[in-house]
């Protein structure tokens, strides 16, 4: 049986509810009823009000939740550390988030000064991770590996979020890049895809797509968190959690 404590529920799972007006606070309240204590918040779902962040923080304390904070922005812009990271970190701290996720952006391996700056501003209480997205710029496995290796040399323990369902969008072999980046991986995003009539990929739940998710999950350490991130509803999500809970890896 898979350890249920590994699962993280991204609020994108209830995208429909958000689209019809529910706040992220309401989404978290719905998701926690499924018995999973790890929630991934999306910054684009925030109302950008301090009161909302404080309410999310109180909810975390009341129900002993662990927050992952997903930021739709690059860590590097024009070769420099994105100055907005200070805002993102302050938001994460206000909510009590333990993890912060961004995409890599315009990283240059020879810019040691920028990594020194990053090392000086990252709090010890927040783990920064970098994810592959659906763009070629942020999903080059060689560039990602170079970044993680360079960051570690500068004393930065930055991990990789392997979004298994995104590699199809950048024409990479999912198994190959998963193995290439395995040593850097600290978190997994699990979703799948189907091909539409034009042969283009479309995101679907891991249980309904073409991705060989079982063999991929088996490659990772059994303690690495698995985040679910695809539009569904509570009934579909509950069924998917049951599938994962009965899996053996």
Fold blueprint:
Blueprint: E1 7-10, H1 15-19, H2 24-32, E2 38-42, H3 50-63, E3 66-77, E4 80-81, H4 85-95, E5 99-105, H5 112-121, E6 127-131, H6 141-153, E7 159-163, H7 174-180, E8 185-190, E9 192-195, E10 201-204, H8 213-217, E11 226-228, H9 234-245
Parallel strand pairs: 1-2, 1-11, 2-3, 3-5, 5-6, 6-7, 7-8, 8-11
Antiparallel strand pairs: 3-4, 9-10
Helix pairs in contact: 2-3
Describe the structure.
With 249 residues, this protein is of the alpha/beta class. 35% of the residues lie in helices and 23% in strands. The protein is built from nine helices and eleven strands. It has helices at residues 15-19, 24-32, 50-63, 85-95, 112-121, 141-153, 174-180, 213-217, 234-245, and strands at 7-10, 38-42, 66-77, 80-81, 99-105, 127-131, 159-163, 185-190, 192-195, 201-204, 226-228. It has an eight-stranded parallel beta barrel. Helix 3 links the parallel strand 2 (38-42) and strand 3.
Descriptive tags:
23% strand; 249 residues
Q: End-to-end distance, in Å?
A: 8 Å
Question: Quick check: average pLDDT?
Answer: 95
Q: Uncertain segments of ≥5 residues (pLDDT<50)? A: none
| Global Rg | 18 Å
Output the strand order for the largest sheet. 1-2-3-5-6-7-8-11
Helix content: 25-40%
Count of alpha/pi helices: 9
Characterize the overall form. globular
Instruction: Give the DSSP E fraction (strand runs of 2 or more residues).
Output: 15-25%
Q: What oligomeric assembly is this protein in?
A: single chain
């Amino acid at each position: 049986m898979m350890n249920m404590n590994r699962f993280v529920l991204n609020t994108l799972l209830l995208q429909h509810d958000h689209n019809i007006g529910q706040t992220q606070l309401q989404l978290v309240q719905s998701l926690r009823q499924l018995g999973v204590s790890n929630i991934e918040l999306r910054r684009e779902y925030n109302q950008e009000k301090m009161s909302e962040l404080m309410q999310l923080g109180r909810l975390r304390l009341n129900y002993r939740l662990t927050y992952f904070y997903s930021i739709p922005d690059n860590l590097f812009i024009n070769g420099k550390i994105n100055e907005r990271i200070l805002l993102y970190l302050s938001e994460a701290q206000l909510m009590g988030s333990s993890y912060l996720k961004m995409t890599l952006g315009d990283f240059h391996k020879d810019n040691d000064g920028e990594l020194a700056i990053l090392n000086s501003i990252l709090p010890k209480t927040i783990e920064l991770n970098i994810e592959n997205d659906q763009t070629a710029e942020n999903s080059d496995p060689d560039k990602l590996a170079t970044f993680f290796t360079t960051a570690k040399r500068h004393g930065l323990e930055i991990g990789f979020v392997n979004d298994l369902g995104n590699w199809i969008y950048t024409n990479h072999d999912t198994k190959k890049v998963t193995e290439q980046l395995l040593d850097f991986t600290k978190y997994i995003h699990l979703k799948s895809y189907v091909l539409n009539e034009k042969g283009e990929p479309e995101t679907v739940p891991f249980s309904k797509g073409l991705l060989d998710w079982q063999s991929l999950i088996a490659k990772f350490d059994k303690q690495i968190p698995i985040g679910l991130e695809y539009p569904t509803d509570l009934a579909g999500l509950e069924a998917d959690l049951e599938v994962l809970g009965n899996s053996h890896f």
